[in-house]
Amino acid sequence: MEGTLKWLACVYYDDYCQDQNAIRDKRGATVDPSGVAFDRLRVFFQKSVWAPHDAYDSWILEIQRRRNAIHAFADRAIGTFDEFYEAVRKYAEFLQDMDNRVPYP
Prior knowledge:
Elements: H1 2-11, H2 13-18, H3 38-48, H4 56-67, H5 81-100
Helix pairs in contact: 3-4
């Protein structure tokens, strides 16, 4: 997911750099999408890319929450196999939607 968001931001790099919500470092310089942490990238997309009717942000938060379970020693719920398969199907739809947003090369 993180790589897909970075890819889309890179395709529209000029627009990203000019966006008021572009991710900036402490000096105010725009940070390249390739060097941005997942959560900051998610927030940028929430503010500047997703239309109000897109439900992507809550879905991406769920992916992020479950992904981070592998980094902790605490016991966390990561979902069932059925939820995993549904997430894979939704990710395939998400990829198709993102592909439809970029110009044909």
